[in-house]
Design a protein that fits this description.
With 416 residues, the chain is of the alpha/beta class. It folds into 2 domains: 4-32 and 280-407, Beta Barrel (Lyase, Ornithine Decarboxylase, Chain A, domain 1); 34-278, TIM Barrel (Alpha-Beta Barrel), CATH 3.20.20. Helix content is 29%, strand content 26%. It contains 12 helices and 21 strands. The longest helix is centred in the middle third of the chain and has 19 residues, at 208-226. Lysine (LYS) binds at residues 60, 162, 202-203, 312, 316, 371, 375. Pyridoxal-5'-phosphate binds next to helix 10. Its EC number is 4.1.1.20. Residues 30-369 form the Orn/DAP/Arg decarboxylase 2 C-terminal domain. Belongs to the Orn/Lys/Arg decarboxylase class-II family. LysA subfamily.
């Protein structure tokens, strides 16, 4: 469910006509809906009911500070993977005490920064990282709160690039080794063992793999309790999928409740790290059709957005709906490949889409709120798109379109 719907023949974002937004801000343009973000966040928050819990939004999905601020105002926590993401959370008014720090390669200065800011917990992904955190904390005369990210070897049934919970993936600590590492961690002078963490992949469309992973995690929690290592939280990661095409993922409510129910009789705090499920359908990417061309019976719509703006179709062959912003009743319906101006064959946003368009029309690429702008780049020296947030009838520019000067910011010429 989202707030991007047609009124008669025009697409609206909440109460704003998308054509007007494009006129005001130009294209390519990311448009986010505040009401959608808030509704999705509340779905996770409310499903856990009375169970102590924390929704830690995965910043990587969309890290614009206005997006983070919307969630900070709701009392959200945040899942971060870098010093940069923590700095963004703080800049957005987020509370460091509700931050969990994931990621396989935290540098010492990132660990020090997070300790200084007083984050909730480090999700430790290897024995070597545990040693590093101990060393940094000892040097700073601080205690680092940690959980181990265990890899439960569960098949998430998702795209291989975004599956993380299998033995062969680089993420986490094999669940078979975790028991010993917990005992070791428990004996370290500057480490406080707090919880356990698990994230098995992204865009999962069924609850069962989450529950299977949780069963394995709970078996370890119980084994640890037998040796007096009592954990105060379980972080179940993110990964809940959304409907891009014809997937039928469980509603966040159903997913979050299934997990909370499993923990109902345990005195333990539950942490979720959703990214996509909150943001994907809270955003669209609006682009203008520049030119139409036909090569050997194949029709191409060349648009002003490209793989640098939205890389998911190129990188994962991801399918995202592409719709007309104004339904054009006059133009012939044809099957188009929607491509950008970048010099790569892989630069496409969608293939074989039936559309009635002429040059100058606007298209909206749906479900672009997550892993859209946050994965964008300047490839082909293309300034990054502008981002706006709609809020009822109002819209706010939350990131200005990049200027040409910004393209070479920080670069310098040789002296001679
Ligand atoms: C550790 C961790 N937590 C949370 C997320 C968010 O995942 P999703 O956007 O699929 O909810 C990710 C990304 O997959 C992740 O790596
Ligand atoms: N970026 C990916 C998801 C990766 C999740 C990050 N751990 C996507 O667009 O689907």
């Amino acid at each position: 469910m989202d707030f991007f719907n047609y009124k008669n023949t025009s697409l609206y974002a909440e109460d704003c006509a998308v054509t007007k937004l494009a006129k005001q801000h130009g294209t390519p343009l990311y448009v986010y809906s505040r009401a959608t973000i808030e509704r999705h966040w509340h779905a996770f928050d409310q499903a856990a009911g009375d169970k102590p819990h924390l929704v830690c939004y995965a910043v990587k999905a969309n890290s614009n500070i206005a997006v983070l601020n919307v969630m900070a105002r709701l009392g959200s926590g945040f899942d971060i993977v870098s010093k940069g993401e923590l700095a963004r959370v703080l800049q957005a008014g987020g509370d460091a005490r509700k931050v969990v720090f994931s990621g396989v390669g935290k540098k010492s200065d990132e660990i020090a920064f997070a300790l200084e800011k007083g984050i909730y917990c480090f999700n430790v992904e290897s024995a070597a990282e545990l040693t590093r955190i101990q060393q940094v904390a000892e040097r700073m005369k601080m205690i680092a709160p940690i959980s181990l990210r265990v890899n439960p070897d569960v098949d998430a049934g998702t795209h291989p690039y975004i599956s993380t919970g299998l033995k062969e993936n680089k993420f986490g600590i094999s669940i078979d080794d975790a028991f010993e590492l917990y005992q070791h961690a428990n004996g370290l002078s500057n480490i406080a063992v707090k919880g356990i963490d698990c994230h098995i992949g992204s865009q999962l469309t069924e609850v069962q793999p989450f529950l299977d992973a949780l069963d394995r995690v709970l078996a370890l929690v119980d084994r640890l309790a037998e040796v007096n290592i009592t954990l105060s939280h379980i972080d179940v990661g993110g990964g809940l999928g959304v409907c891009y095409n014809n997937e039928t993922p469980p509603h966040p409510n159903e997913y979050a409740k299934a997990i909370a129910d499993k923990l109902a009789d345990r005195d333990i705090t539950l942490i979720y790290e959703p990214g996509r499920a909150i943001m994907a359908n809270a955003g669209i990417l609006v682009t203008e059709v520049e030119l139409l061309k036909t090569n050997q019976d194949r029709h191409f719509a060349i648009v002003d957005a490209a793989m640098n703006d939205l890389i998911r179709p190129s990188l994962y062959q991801a399918w995202q709906a592409i719709i007309e912003v104004e339904k054009n009743e006059v133009a012939d319906k044809k099957t188009y490949d929607i491509v950008g101006p970048i010099c790569e064959t892989g630069d496409f946003l969608g293939k074989a889409r039936e559309l009635s368009i002429v040059a100058g029309d606007l298209l909206a690429i749906r479900s672009s709120g997550a892993y859209g702008f946050s994965m964008s780049s300047n490839y082909n020296s293309r300034p990054k798109a502008a981002e706006i947030m709609v809020d009822g009838k109002e819209n706010h520019l939350i990131r200005a379109r990049e200027t040409l000067e910004q393209l070479w910011q920080g670069e310098s010429l040789l002296p001679k």
